[in-house]
Design goal:
Alpha-Beta Plaits, single chain, disordered N terminus, 4-stranded antiparallel beta sheet, globular
Length: 267
């Protein structure tokens, strides 16, 4: 079973223009620590019916900590280079989407969903033979049109996602000199596939003490019905995590996607 231990922040927030939100977190797998880097934004469109095959591939390091199973900095750099080369080689043979990586038990496994697999294995074998002749490596391919591995393994649970988003926002506020002890309106942004789902969500959140802020219909995106709601609160990690966790789970019930919370600065 995957157990989330802590979360570290890596790449920028999700935006509609650039639909990626990369974050990394530590987990426990089989009693050993592992580090998962995942594109959280892909959950919006998962599964992508045009990319039904899962490719899991990566090198194994012979030089890593035997107790933790995590490679040292030099090996991590080589594995980053392997990720770049793998992406380049796959791009040359098929449409693909990198959804995450797992560093665990001296391996760095990279998880792609691809359009077809006709030339994938041959391309990857050539890549490893040319660039990593002294490394063991893994290439696993399977038909997975529902993106089960991404949705149930790579993607963290709602509690971990709440930690990621809350810690990131609070860190940015502190860096800007905010006095977090002062109450203010906490604004939550949620997207929906339908206006009826948005309306039902709004009705239920009003009963939870939230008030309507604004709505927007994009019309051309995967989740075109945007809603923001607000509630006055102090900026405290535990209470904000609870808010986000509850709202994210409620949004799912109405085919929605909780994006983030934000608040005006108080300096």
């Amino acid at each position: 079973m995957k157990q989330v231990l802590c979360v570290l922040l890596l790449l920028p927030l999700f935006t509609q223009a650039q639909p990626e939100q990369w974050d990394t977190y530590m987990t426990q797998l089989g009693g050993k620590p592992g580090s998962i880097l995942v594109d959280l934004a892909q959950v919006i469109n998962a599964p992508d019916k045009l990319l039904p095959y899962l490719v899991v591939t990566g090198p194994r390091s012979a030089r890593c900590n035997s107790k933790t199973g995590l490679p040292g900095p030099e090996e991590i750099n080589k594995m980053e280079q392997a990720l770049e080369l793998t992406s380049a080689f796959l791009t040359g043979v098929t449409a693909r989407k990198l959804t995450g990586t797992l560093t665990y038990n001296c391996e760095r496994l990279n998880y792609y969903y691809v359009k077809d697999t006709f030339a994938v294995r041959t391309a990857l074998v050539r890549m490893y033979a040319k660039n990593y002749p002294d490394y063991e490596y893994s290439v696993k391919i399977k038909y997975e049109p529902q993106w089960i591995t991404y949705r149930t393994f790579l993607y963290p649970d709602s509690v971990a996602v709440a930690w990621i988003n809350t810690n990131k926002q609070m860190t940015a506020m502190l860096d800007a000199g905010d006095d977090l002890s002062q109450p203010r309106d906490i604004i939550h942004t949620v997207y929906f596939t339908s206006d009826s789902g948005r309306t039902a969500f709004l009705k239920q959140t009003k009963e939870m003490g939230y008030t309507f802020d604004k709505s927007f219909d994009a019309g051309t995106v995967a989740l075109p019905y945007e809603l923001t709601i607000k509630r006055t609160s102090k900026v405290i990690m535990d209470s904000l995590m609870k808010m986000e966790h509850e709202l994210a789970d409620l949004a799912k019930a109405y085919n929605g996607y909780y994006k983030k919370w934000e608040a005006p600065l108080n300096r």
